[in-house]
Design brief:
- The longest helix is centred in the first third of the chain and has 18 residues.
- The chain has 2 domains: about 270 residues, no CATH class; about 70 residues, no CATH class.
- The radius of gyration is 25 Å and the shape is globular.
- The protein has about 375 residues and is mainly β.
- The two termini are about 30 Å apart.
- It has an 11-stranded antiparallel β-sheet. A 6-stranded antiparallel β-sheet has the order 12-13-17-16-15-14, covered by helices on one side.
- It contains 6 helices and 17 strands.
Length: about 375
């Protein structure tokens, strides 16, 4: 079944809000990194049958004695700016019910951890995202430890310098950062008083505004889709003024969908969206999984470490997507001639043209692209599966 439109729109919005805050700049050493939803290696992703963060919180004022409406502050701090360590947990769950009574469930779980550290970035971080649908699941994780970033996408690991990891770190704390946009301008938030969340004192706000949720889902005024009800509870830490927890529930009807036969139908949907910061300022560390490559190691098929042929004075490093690249003082033509001779001498074939070459020996093969770098010097990039 194709991804459901309502879910896809919210995913797009989540990502758009996150990217709007991060821009195109690369991480700057010594700067405090933006908050990131990350996964600690000793914290498993919650099972899909375990509900997260119920909205009914013991100790909240009775509904028949509401406190006056107040404007919830929208100048929230990033947890990384005010805490020395924390873990995060988020879940986005959408259930679609079709006219024939069948259902389809899609779920995104994120977990992680942040620890301030004595390195040029000021922190170690990790992040894991798991997306589950009836057709299967996908996962993504990244560990930013010291000067390195290790990324696992679709079961494949790459390791690269943290400065070059912009492609993989462009998505900051989409669950935490989004709340700022969601709450901003909502003058009708109800202050339900002070509560304790995971041992942290917080102020509980409640928002019920169907109009803003229609805006989030990009539902136009002429659309047949109807938001039947929506509720959002937000807990703001009293010390540090950061979003500690939130919970959103919404129900929609007349949502255009495609059923299992490919026919267009109108379905109902239930959305459950949760977020929590916990283990605040606790003592823990973030470490790489056992199957992740050692930071700084560059692997090229068919060559042991240190054996890949390099021109005199050239360097073998990882490029922005973690692939090996050779840079030095030779021109593009000189670098091509060097590898033509070096591979032939070692019994490898080196065939191609216009900068693209296939390098093979027996059953081992990879692709090499030779062009010029920003300084006009020859550069060889190695692409492996």
């Amino acid at each position: 079944m194709k991804p459901q439109r309502f879910l896809s729109l919210l995913y797009i919005l989540l990502l758009a809000v996150a990217l709007a805050g991060c821009g195109d700049e690369q991480p700057t050493p010594t700067a405090t990194p933006a908050a990131a939803l990350v996964v600690a290696t000793d914290t498993p992703v919650p099972p899909t049958n375990t509900p997260l963060l119920p909205t009914s919180t013991p100790g909240a004022p009775a509904t028949n004695t509401p406190l006056p409406a107040v404007r919830a502050t929208n100048n929230f701090q990033a947890p990384s700016a005010v805490l020395k360590s924390y873990r995060t947990q988020g879940q986005f769950l959408i259930t679609t019910t079709f006219p024939d009574g069948t259902t389809d469930m899609q779920e995104m779980n994120l977990e992680g951890a942040f620890v301030k550290a004595d390195n040029s970035y000021g922190s170690n971080e990790s992040f894991r995202m798991l997306i589950q649908e009836q057709s299967g699941e996908d996962s993504f994780e990244i560990y930013k430890i010291g000067e390195w970033a290790s990324v696992n996408s679709e079961g494949e690991w790459i390791t690269l310098g943290r400065d070059n990891a912009g492609l993989f770190t462009a998505m900051p704390d989409i669950f935490g950062g989004f709340v700022d946009q969601f709450v901003q301008g909502q003058a009708d938030a109800q202050n339900l008083g002070d509560e304790d969340v995971e041992g942290v004192a917080a102020t509980h706000y409640q928002i019920e505004d169907v109009a803003i949720f229609r805006q989030i889902a990009q539902i136009g005024p002429d659309s047949e889709e109807v938001i039947e009800q929506v509720g959002m509870d937000v807990w703001v830490a009293k010390e540090g003024n950061y979003i500690l927890k939130y919970s959103v529930q919404a129900e929609a009807s007349n949502v255009k969908q495609t059923d299992s036969s490919g026919a267009g139908v109108l379905a109902s949907q239930n959305v459950n969206w949760q977020y929590l910061v916990y283990d605040v300022n606790q003592d823990f560390t973030i470490s790489l999984p056992a199957d992740a490559p050692e930071p700084g190691a560059i692997s090229i098929p068919g060559f042991a470490e240190g054996e890949f042929p390099l021109p005199e004075g050239a360097k073998l490093t990882a490029n922005q997507i973690g692939m090996p690249q050779v840079t030095g003082e030779l021109s593009q033509a000189e670098l091509t001639k060097f590898y033509t001779d070096a591979f032939a001498a070692a019994g490898w074939s080196f065939t191609g043209d216009f900068g693209f070459y296939q390098v093979s020996k027996g059953e081992v093969n990879f692709t090499m692209f030779i062009d010029t770098d920003e300084a006009g010097k020859g550069r060889a990039q190695v692409f492996v599966e």
